[in-house]
Amino acid sequence: MSWKFGYDSPQAIKMVLKAQDMAMCKRFGQNFLISTPIREKIVDALQVEEGMRVWEIGPGLGSITTLLLQKGGRVTAFEIDHGFCRVLRESAFVDESGFELVEGDALKTMGLRTDIPERICGNLPYNVGSVILGNIMEGVWRPERMVFTLQKEVVQRITATPGSDDWSTISILCQMDYDVKSLFDIKPGSFYPEPNVKSSVLLLEKRSEGRVPPTLKGDFIVMMHDLFAQRRKTIKNNLLRGKCGAALLRDGVDAVLEESGIDPSRRAEELSWDELVRIAAAYAGRASSVPSGNR
Ligand code: SAM
Known about the structure:
about 300 residues; alpha/beta; 7-stranded mixed sheet; two-stranded antiparallel ribbon; 9 strands; binds S-adenosylmethionine
């Protein structure tokens, strides 16, 4: 690797942006991690081994990417900012054979890939971090380990337990196939520019067995989005107003709740994994006879 860059120096970052006639873009949540020890802790948590296929979302100028490549990872980086892409392609990793750049919005470009990574990581932009993570969880990729830097409140929601105020669709999506853990917090001063929110690093480790049977997954996700659509409403009302209600109508929703033995007046955040799976199984059983256009 030929590019030597002072990734911990705001001055060096400003200079490269100025030389390229570029500026930081708030819209893309550009807060660079300017602490080598923190970046090293993140990459260590990912446990990259020689030759592993690693996806990085939002490489910026490549500060984490460099460490991933040093570990022997074959990195595919998804970056939306065309200016950063130019720096990555023409300066930072110009002669790096283990580096591939995918230019554009990761929310669109990831879905076009046919390969499956063994690791995924990213210091995710605050404004769309949970959307990107939700997208990964609803997709086909299931790497053994993933590590993301996100807003602290988002990590609290992802690691929440059933029955708590933070238990929500993103907690369920992430915990379907993964054990999740908040590894450590990062102070705003470790970023340039400093964000006005706190950050945490999230580790996701694949479970040997998912919490939702694979054949139920599609219906489970539809049902879960319906159940949590409006937190103050009962599960029956939420199901009736959502896709489940549109497919099964009132009688069908009543039957699903009766079959799964769940009181229709309960709220979604009170439901355990076992109860959620029971509702999904009853929904899937009935929805299978509904024409696909109505589901
Ligand atoms: N990895 C660098 C670091 O840790 O210092 C930069 C992280 S910065 C918080 C987020 C990065 O994600 C920026 O480079 C930004 O341009 C990029 N980004 C934002 N939205 C994106 C999207 N939808 N798809 C791909 N990259 C995105």
